[in-house]
Amino acid sequence: MALTPEQAAEIDRLRTETHATLRPTVPALEDLLFHPLPALDHGFVRVVDYMGDDGAIVQAARVSYGRGTKRVSEDRGLINYLIRHRHTTPFEMCEIKFHVKLPIFVARQWIRHRTANVNEYSARYSILDNEFYLPAPEHLAAQSDTNRQGRGAVLEGDEAQRVLDLLREDATRNYGHYLEMLNEGAEGKPADPARSGLARELARMNLTLNLYTQWYWKIDLHNLMHFVSLRADAHAQYEIRAYADVLLHVLERWVPITASACREHIVGGTRLSATGLKVVRRLIKGERVSQADSGLQPREWRELAALLGIDPA
Amino acid sequence: MALTPEQAAEIDRLRTETHATLRPTVPALEDLLFHPLPALDHGFVRVVDYMGDDGAIVQAARVSYGRGTKRVSEDRGLINYLIRHRHTTPFEMCEIKFHVKLPIFVARQWIRHRTANVNEYSARYSILDNEFYLPAPEHLAAQSDTNRQGRGAVLEGDEAQRVLDLLREDATRNYGHYLEMLNEGAEGKPADPARSGLARELARMNLTLNLYTQWYWKIDLHNLMHFVSLRADAHAQYEIRAYADVLLHVLERWVPITASACREHIVGGTRLSATGLKVVRRLIKGERVSQADSGLQPREWRELAALLGIDPA
Amino acid sequence: MALTPEQAAEIDRLRTETHATLRPTVPALEDLLFHPLPALDHGFVRVVDYMGDDGAIVQAARVSYGRGTKRVSEDRGLINYLIRHRHTTPFEMCEIKFHVKLPIFVARQWIRHRTANVNEYSARYSILDNEFYLPAPEHLAAQSDTNRQGRGAVLEGDEAQRVLDLLREDATRNYGHYLEMLNEGAEGKPADPARSGLARELARMNLTLNLYTQWYWKIDLHNLMHFVSLRADAHAQYEIRAYADVLLHVLERWVPITASACREHIVGGTRLSATGLKVVRRLIKGERVSQADSGLQPREWRELAALLGIDPA
Amino acid sequence: MALTPEQAAEIDRLRTETHATLRPTVPALEDLLFHPLPALDHGFVRVVDYMGDDGAIVQAARVSYGRGTKRVSEDRGLINYLIRHRHTTPFEMCEIKFHVKLPIFVARQWIRHRTANVNEYSARYSILDNEFYLPAPEHLAAQSDTNRQGRGAVLEGDEAQRVLDLLREDATRNYGHYLEMLNEGAEGKPADPARSGLARELARMNLTLNLYTQWYWKIDLHNLMHFVSLRADAHAQYEIRAYADVLLHVLERWVPITASACREHIVGGTRLSATGLKVVRRLIKGERVSQADSGLQPREWRELAALLGIDPA
């Protein structure tokens, strides 16, 4: 996450320019506006702009002329009610805009959330920086034995070292060849006058998926909570979870009442199937239930047992 | 557009609360924030919040750390370039939120624009006000003879009077029966203690389509320009055009450079078909072109002739 | 749901035209293709076209060259897994298209689901039919005392009769005035030659919200399940629930494995909050829990008690 | 585009299974159903399913009970009218589903079209094949001198050879290291029993952006035309244009009337700005117009001159 001195200076300068506005304003979020919040080894999340606050949700839900209710406790009650009953539209009335720096393979997962706006740094137009992601040793995990889509134990010793060496060497070499193929020198002159240089839109295909890209990303609060509930989840890949955790931190600064309801009902909540609910009702009555008479498949049974903190056997 | 004294007071109070922010701020838009801008006989558009300005479009297009370019002329050039080449995503990085009061039949056209966020005043939950739209005499038009979807000459004399009487009497009577069926008196007591009162979600079905409803509506700048280009168009129904004109006025206050490019390329621009372009090229060379040898159907030919200011004969 | 003889004949004719296709085909859905399935007093849902079946979900999830897995039990297992883990994109790979006739006030709720395609019958262009919704006596409910958004007991006796009379008379009168203002006679001639006739786009504003409209509506399977989970819910207004129930019936014919998983996990499932889950764990351990020590607000506590079938006191 | 014998056999088998259906069916599209249509060196587009035909657009526009109009010429007239007047919703009533194999850097451009459904082959779950894109010699272009986002002359001689060698060697080496890090042998055993093997979701980060991925992609006809109009355009990168050209070919087989209108009005048409239109009107009147008195910026002037086939000087 090394900003250049010029980039740091631009951010510092912007943070000195205070404006007067009639719009709802969140001081706790203003405090971290523009600052890069680190994620992974070279990535960051910067809050660039925002619209609305907890009160704006109440205001929209009531279609009111003024701001919200008179008391914070009323706002809290209404926001909890809206989230519990899946009245999602008032949360769409708040919006936030980020500048994110992230590895390309993370960007490819991230972009699958379609209800957001994106402007990515163009490698057709510009040259990408030489920054790529290398996992920290504690995240260099083996394939899981039980989950075809997950990680197992952390690699150790020679194998870990060999993996890191390969990742570093390949990314470095491929980036070097990228520059060589581009053949761009100082002041728009070719580096080697004997060569034309390959078009940027072609040369980029030699780069590796751990190279960092960056984009502006804007999303409404409802869809941000949905993103976070999927990507801060234990089933998400660690590398995108690292960003989702930063987004959760921002959420808490921005709309603390909503963030609390989100932790309670969305990120921290769970779903029960119709059969799972029947099992829970029987357990509460003191009945003994086994997988065989639960009506659940073995895998669902184990997941439910883990959720309820009971012995699956 | 009669605000109640309470509503006017709430707006006045909000306009006294100035906050400090680091976010991009548009003084010309702050000036009209919260004020109702009239549309039709009882409707309005209020700007409730906004995110971004002309500079924010440039900032997103460049994925930059600072604000935009150094000079307004550079911003103008880039914004024009983006619009001309249909690079629409940077315009999605600005967002605006309105409170709109509008007749139900207008709301039904408006809602067809799906890329926006809406919170409508709930007639399941609350009682609607007794306000309905009556066309001004100069908008009381006959069906067009030539366009199955348009208006012709203005009605006059007895026919005009009869239409206005019917519209007023039917809307008034139906609203009166709506209140009667609801049977809601003061302080949550029934008006007539002998009756239960019909559920609000049912009673509303007796209302007419010219009754006013209201909603919060939030949209990004790209989709706002698309909305305006379709609804400020001469083919749009007058009643929604009245609102699109207000939105255009807001657009000019908010993002003057973009609004200018929008007038030049989107609202004021036009499309030529492949065959239409061939006709134009021939005309510029000084050739005479008739419908018969234009390759265009009669209707397309007449439309093109009108566009180019030539004699279709 | 009175089809004209011409409409019935068109449907009959279409049902005689069998084509050969290599596409996945669902005989149980072909059986009801084009037929109007009744909803409310004059409404219907007709399946007009569909794409995909249960196997197509598996095929997309596997990005396979062939059709799906070899065995139905494998398909069932994968589909359940996908739904339980919110892998929603494979369900977006099936699509269905309906022709729906519905009251305008129902259409206004329905249209809030934005992730669908709609073509509505145009009252700017055409004249609407004289059909409006009147609740059956058993659905003529009073406002709920406890839920500001719900229904209470059914109205009876004189009050019920008076409500039905008002609804019928007002809708009938307003429709009559609509025709009078239009002044359209046979063969494009005015009914009264002395009058011009009001434009259709204006005359429609005199109609009541219980008048029937119709549209083509196309949606993917994921969003159809979401629609049904919200609108077949006990909190939804009865009049839209009547349609959601028909959609559920179609779902079962079309994709029986997915419909079963949908009943188990989406329509029939439930959500537990983080605190709700803690309460459940304590109850299963045999602890006594009261609202006071549950960490839940009174309303949430009552809802949880009802869900679990325990005494809230 | 080398299918394995198993993949080819699956496709052949599917093409023998004919079903009876009442749905609209397009024989010309059935002919190419499931067959891979080649794009670039190893990519393809396969039509997997479709919904609707030209008649279905007319049917939806009319919200009709039967199929469309009686005569093809009427359908053609209506479809042209709808496209010319931007009535886009009837085109959303047709849907098509593809299986596409494409380089990752192309997939990253493609996915920016959000109004579509995607299921991508998961490199968290499975191992990617060793297939990567190498440009044919005639597409190995230098960076454009005049357009920061385009290509110039084709590279030749040693420079071309060096570029191809680098691309091939780097992609091959990185893929080899990918397999080495995975350490997966036959029958779920490790290749080297002394090593654990890196998780698939991590190992993939070593791959280059020219590696092929594949996905199922489903889109409605309106959005497909929008995609094609942007990506078959001369400003689009050649590698995605190669796919857009295949999609255009499919479009012509599927909905020939619409495809013709699309070529005339969308792909082949153009836009004129308000000022550009004034210039055209003056030129048609026989006036001489220069950039200086055109009201256009030099770049816009040159673009307009090229469009109209006049001398910009």
Summarize the structure.
Chain A has 313 residues and is an alpha+beta fold. Chain A contains 12 helices and 9 strands.
How is this structure best described in words?
The structure is a homotetramer of 313-residue chains. By secondary structure, the first copy, chain A, is an alpha+beta fold. Chain A folds into 3 domains: 193 residues, Gyrase A, domain 2 (2-Layer Sandwich), CATH 3.30.1360; 76 residues, no CATH class; 35 residues. Helices cover 43% and strands 15% of the residues of chain A. The first copy, chain A, has 12 helices and 9 strands. In chain A, the strands form 2 sheets. In chain A, strands 2-3-4-8-5 form a 5-stranded antiparallel sheet. The longest helix of chain A has 26 residues. In chain A, 45% of the residues are buried. Chains in contact: A-B, A-C, A-D, B-C, B-D, C-D. At the B-C interface, helix 5, strand 6, strand 7, helix 6 and helix 7 of B face helix 5, strand 6, strand 7, helix 6 and helix 7 of C. Strand 9 of chain A pairs antiparallel with strand 9 of chain C.
